[in-house]
Amino acid sequence: MASSIENNNEKLTLKSSDGEEFLVEKHVALQSTLLQNMLDSDCSSADVIPLPKIDARTLALVLGYCKKHADASSSKQGELNSFDSEFLKDMDMGALFNLVLAANFMEIKGLLDIAAQKIADTIKDKPHQEVREIFHVENDYTPEEEAAVREENRWAFEGFP
Amino acid sequence: MSWLPAKSLVRFTCVCKPWLSLIRDSTSAHTTAKPPFLLRYFSLPPDNTRLFCLRSDAHAVYAHGMLVFLKPGQEHSVELLREEKEKRIILHKKRMALLGEEEAKKLQQEDYEREQRLLDRVLEEQTLDTPLSISELPVDPKIEEMPAALGDYMVCFGMLVFPKPGQRFTMELLREERERRLLLHKNRIALLGTEEAEKLQKEDYEREQHLLDQTHKERSAKREKTEQHHPGPKFVELTSTQRLDYEERLRESGVRAWMEPPFCTQATAAAYSYAACQADLAQNMAFFESNHFTLSANTGLGGFDVGDILAYVSNIPVRPFELGNPLLVEMIEGYAKSALDQHNKYNNTKYQFVKVLKANIGGYSPGWNYYITSQVKDMASSGSPTLNFQAKVNSIEDQEAITAISPEP
Questions:
Q1: pTM for the predicted model, two decimal places
Q2: ipTM
Q3: How close B126 comes to chain A (CA, Å)?
């Protein structure tokens, strides 16, 4: 495989956690720092790179993002920005979480940034009780403790229940 | 996390305990091992000028990389910031002159980090933040050009103060400096808690003592040089350890130490108020005035026993007075006798002066204070027993005034 790494048209095969295989152009895969490091250190001798933490649905989205950004890296930034917002539009929380996890694992900083920002934008104006539900977090405060923490930062709760 | 605004993050500390510690920890600039998640929101770029409302009567300005606390009702102004900036430049130059460039830079970096810690807390505490536009900050060119040299300094109320070029020391100036430090201390208590604030205060004190020791060393060396040609009494300064012993002794004899860091009696985060700060200040000033300008007036003790230290020590309020010269002995005896006469007159006693045992001198204006311990005989009692008497005499331009006299306790 070593000789073929020089070739930019070379394709890689990525395998999702649920066994689906994706054929990717190398320059698209390079959007991921993880894959880039693997290729650089030549540990991609296997024909198929398994990504056991990422399901097929998420991987397809990730690769869609990578392809757009790899192909457009020299083109207008504005075009990319509108692609990014369109890309995430109407995506549900579960999909966004998976995307963040995948982007984090594959080290795709741009994707991590926009997906995390999207989540942040969704929750930032929500009351903390609702945030608890969104993240499936168990409330381990006693009512008194919660009131105390809240009292400490009263200013942040103005206008919230 | 780092994608959320500070206000939402602070609100989400209520979600659950792990979130609370996660958010708190990542806002501390000192957890360098962890990625600085929130630094993007919890620390400001250096040119970001803002006004913060900390509590109902406490405001702070962050501008030009400096965090400045305002007195209640005080407006933020270019003037105020300039003064702060000049103060810092002067301090840095003095440190360079006394401790060398490397040490001075280290201290400056430390100052910066300590301030960032406060700033982090300010950003959490803020109830209102308004971007300000204070774009220009002219600094006195005389200060910019000031060479790194020892120059003038003044130690008073336990503070080491460096003047601006051409500035004269006044009580007003000292009061302001004192107020500034109290304000900082109170704000530290409110922001970091009492323990942390007191730790910082102690550090401040030690850093200042270190600088002071250096100034004394410099000055002594200089004096030695000039006095080789004009021999006279050699003044020396106590080192910080010796001074601690001295203060301990003064404290034991009922006098509040001279070089102690500012003491705040009512300072708690909950009880923070400017009025309390003012009350502390007034109390401290009054205490200082009663205990140090007329050292023994209240206690009748302070000043008479300063322990085994050299005469001609110049950085303490009261030092031994050397009776090496018959003229001086005569003068001190004269003071002791007239003090005793006065005592006899007002108390209808018959004490007779025998000799002077010990004399100390306090060099505070107005005039000199002499603390004289002398042996007397009680002629009214059978057998004329001897006892020791303490007299405090204040002398201004050869006009003496007896301010206290009593038998030694």
A1: 0.42
A2: 0.74
A3: 8
